[in-house]
């Protein structure tokens, strides 16, 4: 019984740590993007669109990601989400203009939905 409890706690701590690290890039974006919008090639209205894009994606993607989690398994989904969180955060640094930034935000929305499902399950 003790071994099962240890595995359960390791899974909880591991997935929560991944979630925390992945959220750093997103949280930083909320602080940096409005202040440096012109450096990203964005207007202030576009900043609002970019910051809310991931929420719109999640509304429509949760069902599909839940089915993906059922097929892949939560561990693989969490690994996939950790990798894509890194990719989307890195894409923010290369984004010049709205197209790449929007793509990164959509990818982040899918990633965040995956992380939420992986950590709450």
Describe this structure in words.
The structure is a single chain. The chain has 121 residues and is mainly α. The chain contains four helices and no strands. 86% of the residues lie in helices and 0% in strands. It is elongated. The protein has a domain at 37-120.
Q: Tally the helices: what do you get?
A: 4
Overall form: elongated
- What share of residues is helical? over 70%
- How many strands, which pairing sense, and closed or not: the largest β-sheet? none
Calculate Rg over CA atoms: 16 Å
Written as H for each helix and E for each strand, in order along the chain, the element string is HHHH
Low-confidence stretches: none
Quote the distance from N terminus to C terminus.
20 Å
Overall structural class, as computed from helix and strand content, comes to: mainly alpha
Please, what is the average pLDDT?
84
| Count of beta strands | 0
Q: How much beta, percentage-wise?
A: under 5%
Based on the model shown, name its key terms.
mainly alpha, 4 helices
